[in-house]
Amino acid sequence: MKTAECLNHMAPYLFAQIDKKRDALKAKGVDVISLGIGDPDMPTPTHIVDAMAEAIRKPSNHQYPDYAGAIEYRTACSNYMKKRFGVEVDPETEVLACIGSKEAIAHLHTAFVNPGDYVLAPSIGYPVYSGGATLQSAHTYFMPMKEENGFLADFSAIPEDVLSRAKIMFLGYPNNPTGAVADEAYFDKAIAFCIEHDILLAHDNAYCEIGFDGYRAPSILERPHAKECCIEFFSLSKAYNMTGWRIGWACGNEIAVQALGTVKNNLDSGQFNAIQEAATAALEGPQDCIADMCALYQRRRDLIVDALHAIGVECKMPQATIYVWAKIPEGFTSEEFATKLLEEAHVIVTPGSGYGPEGEGYIRISLTTPDDRLLEAVKRMKESMGR
Ligand SMILES: Cc1ncc(COP(=O)(O)O)c(C=O)c1O
Fold first, then answer.
1. What does R_g of the chain's alpha carbons equal in angstroms?
2. Ligand 1 pocket: which of 44, 99, 101, 231 to mutate (most atoms <8 Å of CB)?
3. Is the separation of the CB atoms in 329 and 361 below 8 Å?
4. Is the pLDDT reported for residue 17 higher than 80?
5. Quick one: which atom of ligand 1 is closest to the CA of 237?
6. pLDDT 10s digits, 325-356
């Protein structure tokens, strides 16, 4: 049996590979500490679970949902955009419910990219930006993204022949995996660039609620002219500890939102209405759970950054996200170093190379593990590194 040509160019999904290795060790009874995937370890807040318990009993929720999402949910998303960022988006035409933001990001390519086209992605970023391009038999141009430039992807270096065939530029700040944040001037530059070159600017704002030391991430849609070229993706996964629920939304430029909707109409039949009701309760209910979550991650961030510095591992204090982006010692590739930690210390970290070409030389450490396990992991790392 012959699979599609594009699959030959698809690297195995990073986390699926890591899970396999973890499961093999666990099956042998090994105590593995996972600082790999960014999957919150705390439960979904009770008022959201309660809303779900109520919603699941309503027979009307047992039928097919509205393709674009229930208007009540889309209105809650629109109200959130207004309240949180001062951004107006029409729930009827400029908001689309998604089954988690991953699928929506991947399906955006189907709506905008033809075989042979280019997608512009940060050279360190969420793998789905380039994976979605590969699935469309399109190319990815990785925009340089250097530590000395604050991990802001540099779109001024894109060659003309790539630019003329580029359809989407992906950016995502607060950034997974580097924890970098972007300011208004950077967003303005990106918007002007994408308008000039007729490129859709897709901004992934999955981590907008996770900021430290008072940092509050903006929406790109706050910026002037953003709606002329931008679609932005939001997720309830990290903001409300809802990774398993699979719910998010896309909003912004109407043409982009509607085109993505057309793709999704033909691929899925929407997200379970009860989940949309619970997500509505999350967006409209008390928000102190977010402050609590940020305080928890901030404490863990401080704990692990200090512990890593103490064993001579270089890393910066991130202002946002649930990740610490750390330099690996000389003499290893990031994959070799991650494998060494897994095999010798039984600690899972993610090799930076899995996030794109300039991720080489780094590992990503997730803060979604209790304090004592984080410290135990650094202790084991120290031993494995002979420090
Ligand atoms: C940068 C980024 N975008 C999007 C997602 C997708 O999240 P979800 O599909 O759970 O909404 C993730 C998940 O880790 C992410 O890190």
1. 21
2. 101
3. no
4. no
5. 10
6. 999 999 999 999 998 999 899 999 999 999 99
| Spatial distance between the Cα atoms of 326 and 333, rounded to a whole number of angstroms | 13
Give Cα 325 to chain centroid, integer Å.
Answer: 15
22, pLDDT greater than 90: no
**Amino acid, single-letter form, for residue 352:** G
Q: Which atom of ligand 1 has the smallest separation from the CA of 101? A: 11
User: pLDDT tens digits, residue range 87-127?
Assistant: 999 999 999 999 999 999 999 999 999 999 999 999 999 99
Cα angle vertex 151, ends 328, 330, to 5°? 15
Mutation choice for ligand 1 from 107, 204, 355, CB with most ligand atoms inside 8 A: 204
CA 323 to centroid of ligand 1, rounded, Å: 13
Residue type, 358: E
User: Is 0.90 topped by the overall pTM?
Assistant: yes
Distance 38 CA to ligand 1 centre (A): 9
Residue type, 282: A
User: Is-contact 280 76, C-beta < 8 A?
Assistant: yes
User: Ligand 1: residues within 6 Å at CB?
Assistant: 38, 100-102, 126, 172, 176, 204, 206, 235, 237, 243, 248
Beta bridge partners of 143: 122
CA distance 124 to 114: 24
